Amino acid sequence: MELNTYVRQLHDQLVAVAETGDPAARAFLDRLIVALEPAARLALLDALSAAAAEITQDLAPGSVEVRLRAGEPEFAVSTPATEQPGAGTEPPAAPIVDDDTDGPMVRLNLRLSESLKNRIERAAARQGRSANAWLARAATAALAAEDTEPPTTHAAPGRGSHRRQTGWVR
């Protein structure tokens, strides 16, 4: 997406306002227009990022991210891979819903081993996400799964388990 079109529209509107004033006002507005261009670009990027975050909430478990490439924003849309019918044995995942979307974003410091960090980055790249977005989504999914699982019952010692296991033993 090219922001130049939108910044140029703002520029043209400000020039039109400047032309209605005296030469001193025009000179002032010319300087102001040059100074406003970076602020206008930043405001547009903020609006695009907010829109992407809002769309991501409705698109879960997919996501939309805004990325800068050569100074211009690009949208990266990732959707979950579709499986062939009968290919997987797990039921489809419930949509991930963040219950606290109105609260402020917070920073969390997390210490990981280098190998785990690399695995997370590879998994995030496969999904077209940043590592931060991948971790946030993984945490949300884990908590959602925890909320939907029935409580586990532990058997009394010496009485065995209520779970049945099958398989081969050598």
Report on the architecture of this protein.
This protein has 170 residues and is mainly α. Helices cover 49% and strands 8% of the residues. The chain contains four helices and two strands. It has a two-stranded antiparallel sheet. The protein is elongated and about 90 Å long. It comes from Actinocatenispora thailandica. Residues 76-102, 143-170 are annotated as: Disordered. One of its GO terms (biological process) is regulation of DNA-templated transcription. InterPro entries: Arc_rbn_hlx_hlx, Ribbon_hlx_hlx.
**Overall CATH class of the domain at 96-149:** Mainly Alpha
Strand content: 5-15%
Q: Structural class of the secondary structure composition?
A: mainly alpha
Number of strands: 2
> What CATH architecture label of the domain at 96-149 applies?
Orthogonal Bundle
- Helicity level, as a percent range? 40-55%
Mean pLDDT: 76
Element-by-element helix/strand order = HHEEHH
Shape: elongated
Q: Strands across the major sheet, in which order? A: 1-2
Instruction: Give the uncertain stretches in residue-range form.
Output: 88-94
Largest sheet: 2 strands, antiparallel
- CATH fold group of the domain at 96-149: Arc Repressor Mutant
Radius of gyration: 26 Å
With helices defined by DSSP (H or I, 4 residues minimum), what is the helix count? 4
Query: Termini, distance in Å?
Result: 61 Å
Protein name: Toxin-antitoxin system HicB family antitoxin
InterPro entries: Arc_rbn_hlx_hlx, Ribbon_hlx_hlx
Biased composition (Basic residues): 160-170
Region (Disordered): 76-102, 143-170
